[in-house]
Design a protein that fits this description.
Blueprint: E1 18-20, E2 24-30, H1 35-41, E3 46-48, E4 59-62, E5 65-68, E6 71-72, E7 77-81, E8 85-89, E9 103-109, H2 117-130, E10 131-142, H3 144-153, H4 157-167, H5 179-188, H6 198-207, E11 216-218, H7 226-229, E12 240-246
Parallel strand pairs: 1-5, 3-4, 3-9, 4-8, 9-10
Antiparallel strand pairs: 2-7, 5-6, 7-8, 10-12, 11-12
Helix pairs in contact: 3-5
């Protein structure tokens, strides 16, 4: 995956933006998207909250639309973007525009924290619906436990994380070295709505219907399906909790 990221911003949640692209082609595929639709597009899974990280070979989704000249994406339609990736504009707070059992893989990097807890659980229920029986969900999200340990132990995590924020384009005067500032920013900036540790994420998954036995903590780019784990971006691995969950067989 391309390691580039959007320009620095603390508070932007993307709700009133559009991403620009050079070429936007309507594929003619319409919601609800079925397994055979995805197969015809030659995509292996669905990525939620793709933002600026659209991946070739996946159906990328985001509430933020795309614009090419006067052409704009519309919900319920799959587009080919810049002849490299597929995209559908969809708001994860609502019913997902997929048929039941449409995909074997779902991936979401630093996405679920942009939903409230109730919204996140409803989205996870929808993910369980669109996964094939035994299908794989891989979630990554800022790890509250890592931030708390960094604050309590003063173990160098905050200094390293600050350097990463500066590399993302943060002006130095907007990223002070105070530890309290660093722990506060994961709750109050970036459009975040709910921050998880492993137990809280497991609670959300099991409440949404994912079996506890199928929930596994993973490491950066390590998982049950290498092609899914490979989507993890290195720029976030210092702060990230990686978890995979299997949908129930016979769903």
């Amino acid at each position: 995956m391309d390691e580039t990221v959007a320009p620095w911003t603390w508070d932007d949640d993307g709700s009133d933006e559009e991403f620009r692209c050079a070429r936007l082609t309507d594929t003619g595929v319409r919601a609800p998207f079925r397994a055979d639709d995805l197969a015809a597009l030659d995509v292996c899974g669905v990525q939620f909250g793709s933002w600026d990280g659209r991946v070739s070979g996946w159906l990328n989704t985001d509430a933020v639309g795309l614009r090419c000249g006067e052409a704009r994406t519309e919900t319920g339609r799959v587009y080919r973007v810049d002849d490299t990736a597929h995209f559908v504009q969809a708001d994860a707070r609502h019913r997902l525009p997929f048929a039941d059992g449409a995909t074997p893989w779902v991936y979401a990097e630093h996405f679920i924290e942009h939903l409230t807890l109730d919204e996140g659980i409803r989205w996870l229920r929808e993910v369980g619906r669109i996964l094939t029986p035994g299908g794989l969900l891989r979630l990554t999200t800022p790890d509250l436990a890592r931030y708390v340990d960094g604050y309590r132990l003063d173990d160098g995590f905050y200094a390293t994380h600050r350097e990463r924020l500066l590399l993302l384009g943060a002006p130095p005067d907007e990223v002070p070295e105070r530890r309290a500032f660093t722990i506060n920013q994961i709750f109050h900036f970036h459009g975040h709505r709910w921050i998880y540790d492993e137990d809280e994420l497991s609670f959300a998954l099991t409440t949404a219907g994912f079996p506890a036995a199928g929930i596994v903590r993973r490491a950066y780019r390590e998982g049950a399906e290498p092609a899914v784990a490979a989507l993890d971006r290195q720029v976030r691995n210092d702060e990230t909790l990686y978890v995979e969950a299997r949908s129930p067989d016979g769903r």
